[in-house]
Amino acid sequence: MSEAILSPTSSTDALAHPLRARALPIETDGEAMIFMHEDCPVARSEGFRARVRVELVAKGRRLLATLYRATDDLLADDEVGLPHRLMARLSLAEGDELQVRHPHPLSSLSHVRAKLYGHRLDEIRLGHIIADIADGRYSDVDIAAFVSAFAAQPAQGEETAALTRAMLAAGDRLEWNADRVMDKHCVGGLPGNRTTPIVVSIIAAAGLTMPKTSSRAITSPAGTADAMETMAPVTLDLAAMQKVVEREGGCIVWGGSVNLSPADDVLIRIERALDVDSDAQLVASVLSKKLAAGSTHVLLDLPVGPTAKIRSTRDADALAGLLENVARQCGLHVATVQTDGTQPVGRGIGPALEAHDVLAVLANRDDAPQDLKARALALAAGILELSGAPSSDALHRATQLLVEGRAESKFLAICEAQGGFKEPGRALQTREFLAARAGRVATFDNRLLARTAKLAGAPQRATAGIALHVKSGDLVEQGQPLFTIHGESMGELDYAFAFALRNSDMIRLEAQ
């Protein structure tokens, strides 16, 4: 994380110009930042400008942060304002002394500049960059430059493999007492595609090992970790995660809570702000975490559709080739499967709404979304095949585990092992979006539907999002609900509804 504490200072590193710590009630979304008064004599003498990178020294420890200037009476001229989270990281109390000074220059930034000018980077240079990012030495601006440089350049196999290994080296790595450790990953871009909890439950119920670390949303209304968190704790450390897997054979935890690929979590935060997701960093992100989690065999789901992340079969083939190439260089067995990305999966779009779909499938309810069930079973069968099961038997075996209730029992056991199961919540406010005319459902715009769910508050508001009422090919009457927007406040609900009205063709109807 960008708040990572650096190495302890020496005993001779005295506070030459001590200032006083002042806690500020602000949230910075993981960015390490501090505030100093524009008349602070230390800031003036050191020549600190706004947004300059500075080093904090307190109680024998150092930490890098971005400086901002206060121009009013928010702070006294001998105070440093820190978010409560940074105060805790440095074990500071109100009024404790600390020093603010210029940090040592970062040589790895020259490698970032080289990448910006189109040069390819080897594993040594990428290792220096990733290590500095993981240690919190880069500002958000520096990281954004690195992310943008990769996004602007076509992905190349050797460089992507080098980036993958550099990200892997920056964190911890798990080992399991199993010959084959299974995993799956979807590259994203398809709302409601919440197959992971179902697949993990089926695979663990089959007696295989599947320690699943999942991401929170980057540019979508929900990530697997967001949806899972509405049903069970997902913020487990490595020791807790290992206990769950040893006990139940699988888990579904947030990857950011375990130090498996720490630089990736920082990169994801910046990618979310930039709304970019380059192929090279996508591949390095996915594979570094799979390798770090101790996975040996991974099934990769690539949804393809005009408004999915992957727009065409040609793009999917290129990404699949890159994934397979890099995985081979890193000693990981992968299989890729291209799936339908033309419309959302299930009914819910948003953490709790997607969780309700998952529970309905696991419980074999009649009203469960059948497309989510079929997709999860197909992926589970693919993983069973990857483990060595006969292809003729894999789908039958996965279906049997689900229909007999063994997958549901395993899911509830995993939830209990992670800290206890809870029912996902329901939004207090809802509003139906009605068809303006009669017709047949022709197309869905996944991006606009996802945007509507995000404007309603997802994923930050766990119960916010969209509940779909139609699928492709359905006949609808004028005034029939196409979807229902769920929100936790009327303001967010109104905002999302207004956006939907301006983009009413996100579900396009054609004449019958």
UniProtKB/TrEMBL annotation:
<dbReference type="Pfam" id="PF07831">
    <property type="entry name" value="PYNP_C"/>
</dbReference>
<dbReference type="GO" id="GO:0009032">
    <property type="term" value="F:thymidine phosphorylase activity"/>
</dbReference>
<dbReference type="InterPro" id="IPR000053">
    <property type="entry name" value="Thymidine/pyrmidine_PPase"/>
</dbReference>
<keyword id="KW-0808">Transferase</keyword>
<dbReference type="GO" id="GO:0006213">
    <property type="term" value="P:pyrimidine nucleoside metabolic process"/>
</dbReference>
<protein>
    <recommendedName>
        <fullName>Putative thymidine phosphorylase</fullName>
        <ecNumber>2.4.2.4</ecNumber>
    </recommendedName>
</protein>
<dbReference type="Pfam" id="PF00591">
    <property type="entry name" value="Glycos_transf_3"/>
</dbReference>
<dbReference type="InterPro" id="IPR017872">
    <property type="entry name" value="Pyrmidine_PPase_CS"/>
</dbReference>
<dbReference type="InterPro" id="IPR000312">
    <property type="entry name" value="Glycosyl_Trfase_fam3"/>
</dbReference>
<comment type="similarity">
    <text>Belongs to the thymidine/pyrimidine-nucleoside phosphorylase family. Type 2 subfamily.</text>
</comment>
<dbReference type="InterPro" id="IPR013102">
    <property type="entry name" value="PYNP_C"/>
</dbReference>
<dbReference type="Pfam" id="PF02885">
    <property type="entry name" value="Glycos_trans_3N"/>
</dbReference>
<dbReference type="InterPro" id="IPR028579">
    <property type="entry name" value="Thym_Pase_Put"/>
</dbReference>
<dbReference type="InterPro" id="IPR013466">
    <property type="entry name" value="Thymidine/AMP_Pase"/>
</dbReference>
<dbReference type="GO" id="GO:0006206">
    <property type="term" value="P:pyrimidine nucleobase metabolic process"/>
</dbReference>
<keyword id="KW-0328">Glycosyltransferase</keyword>
<dbReference type="GO" id="GO:0004645">
    <property type="term" value="F:1,4-alpha-oligoglucan phosphorylase activity"/>
</dbReference>
<dbReference type="InterPro" id="IPR035902">
    <property type="entry name" value="Nuc_phospho_transferase"/>
</dbReference>
<dbReference type="InterPro" id="IPR017459">
    <property type="entry name" value="Glycosyl_Trfase_fam3_N_dom"/>
</dbReference>
<dbReference type="GO" id="GO:0005829">
    <property type="term" value="C:cytosol"/>
</dbReference>
<dbReference type="InterPro" id="IPR036320">
    <property type="entry name" value="Glycosyl_Trfase_fam3_N_dom_sf"/>
</dbReference>
<dbReference type="InterPro" id="IPR036566">
    <property type="entry name" value="PYNP-like_C_sf"/>
</dbReference>
